[in-house]
Amino acid sequence: MIARHLDTLLLVVDEGSFEAAAARLGVSPSAVSQRIKALESDVGRVVVRRTTPVGVTDAGEVLVQAARRMRLLETETDDRLHHRVSERPVTVGINADSLGTWFRPVLRSVAAHGGIGLQLQVEDEQHSLEMLRRGDVMGVVTAEADPVPGCVSEELGVMRYWPVGSPELAATLGDGPGQVGLDRLPVLIIGSYDRMTDDVLAGRGLTGSADRRVSRIPSFEGLNDAVVAGLGWTVVPVSAADPYVRAGTMVRLGDEVGEVPLYWQRWRLESDTLGALTDAVHAAAAVGLD
């Protein structure tokens, strides 16, 4: 395999099309296509799905992972040889709740370390592992303990959640006149994969009513604001909800404490950059998770 062909594959995947990759490389789309075909000929398999955006096959995922690892090691080697520090981009998959709470000190650690450019991709902790399998990221915060092939899985701790709503919304919850059950209250979710409110209902032997109002707020801070505004109820990390509850702007809607164990899965690779990031993640988790 020629390194140029692997670099071209990465660009096609990252840019989403042959045309966009060609523009970045300053060559024609036909030249990009020829490089990909040459790569596929070398490995004896189709590696790219000609979809919109471009996807990769299982063989392509293996090559993308290898290419990203090679790029990181090449950059670190070059830095050492020339006694310099460059901006090495590290890609990480992270769920919004973690990014909004315990993960924040990692940002300070990366800034203090210098030379690392951090690229975060926000995804639900139940589904972030797919990004690692595809080679899109070097590490993920995930709820899955079993390691992806070629990666290591390290326990971080447990994130705890409360079901909460505004005082005004909580007043409508009950069996009295004009009141409704939790399954009929307006609900807030942060993304299409968010099932934590359903888990709360299931724990009470309920399912969400088909005619309840569902609002999607794709922002951790925005979700908290929506709760305070009375737009609906949801589950919020205890560390984030507690100040609001103490201030009286949020109310717990039951005694349940949801628990989600979190793990750090990363490439099995001896890398100064990845090692520094891993240390920062564990240090933050030791303080912010149970």
Automatic annotation (TrEMBL):
Keywords: Activator, DNA-binding, Transcription, Transcription regulation. Residues 1-57 form the HTH lysR-type domain. GO terms for molecular function: DNA binding; DNA-binding transcription factor activity. InterPro entries: ArgP (IPR017685), LTTR (IPR050176), LysR_HTH_N (IPR000847), LysR_subst-bd (IPR005119), WH-like_DNA-bd_sf (IPR036388), WH_DNA-bd_sf (IPR036390). Pfam families: HTH_1, LysR_substrate. Belongs to the LysR transcriptional regulatory family. This is ArgP/LysG family DNA-binding transcriptional regulator. It comes from Corynebacterium nuruki.
